[in-house]
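Researcher: Hi, I'm a grad student and pretty new to this. My advisor asked me to get structures for two proteins we've been looking at. I'm not sure of the right format, so I'll just paste the first sequence and hope you can take it from there.
Model: That works fine. Here's the first sequence with its structure tokens right after it:
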Amino acid sequence: MKQVFFIPVLLTAVLASGAAWSQTPAAAPAPAPAAPAAMAPAAAGQSNDALVQMHNRIRAANKAYDRKVAAAKKVYNDKVAQAKAERDKTIADARATAGTGG
């Protein structure tokens, strides 16, 4: 009997505390300071920051790697398809020779 009373009371307390939290005014975030003109990138996609340049080079290397892997996977899948076709033809010839027909 205690459990029947305790669960609704606990649930009501949790919901009430959540409602109280949602009614408190949130502090407005401070606006970000404007970047000085000297820190602006020279052109789109370029930066004077060494860390940004490093990440851009890493991104370019990963993109080139992904292209090579995709090309290798395509070649591999083509070779697998050719091998399967040869196997299926050989199996069909063997069955035809044996007279089972399928």
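Researcher: Oh nice, that was easy. Here's the second one.
Model: And its structure:
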Amino acid sequence: SYLPWFEVFYKLLNNLADYSTKGQTNEMKELLSVLYKHPVPPANGSITVQMIPYFIAPDPKALPSIPESRNLTELVVAVDVGNLLQLFASMLFERRILIYCSKLSTLTACIHACNGMLYPMYWQHIFIPVLPPHLLDYCCAPMPYLIGIHSSLAERVRSRALEDVVILNVDTNTLESPHEDLKKIPADVVAGLKVRLKRQAASAGSGVAHAFLRAQTLLFGGYRDALQSPEGPVVFSNELFLSHKSQSMREFLESAVHLQCFKEFIDGRLKMLNQGKEPDDVFEEEVLHCGASSGAC
């Protein structure tokens, strides 16, 4: 499915597994048929099917919460704050990233949760939650990627000519990186993110997701100051975006404006604005919150 409804589908699969275990093949087929024919509900809309308890369609604007979000929960349980910071920086700079794990469900959860770190941006490159053995040469690709590998294939992957690859081993909670990306992000942003993650990592709620959102807001929330509409459509000015910034922030943004995830984010915002629509999501709410407090989020 194209719908990122991980929790809903996890529950549905459990129901289907129960039917399969009990040999109730007809009931399983009937449930699949009913779900296939049912129209996609709106955000927060509920679906009631006679054979299973009702479920509610997720709100795409809501931040993932622990423990409701299995993806984020598994990532936070398996990976410590230090490695989460390194992983976030590697994602932000669009590196080649390999993630190893011996449990496929944890592997896919971590891969999808990593993508969520970038919100309101999204990974724009090769994205393979579980790479099959016959496609291991993808690990030698010259472009950025985020790929999950079962731990049993780790040695076969390492025997290949890997260049500038960031490797996270979820089983051992170890991360190897040839880059120093974390040092390229303004120190105050990293320090704030670290404090918030340490405070929220063991807590229920959306605190972890909000910590990454706050970091993204501090880094990119000033994009609106760089919007111009000189007798025509709204455009984005790199020069304005880089002006009036601290030296460390300016150095970071000079690299960031060339990243594909940032370009796609700006293009998406410009498209909305030029269609007469006002961007309305939790990122924009966070930008307003930070602006209201003089930027001291």
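Researcher: Is there anything I should tell my advisor about the second?
Model: You could mention this: Residues 187-295 form one domain.
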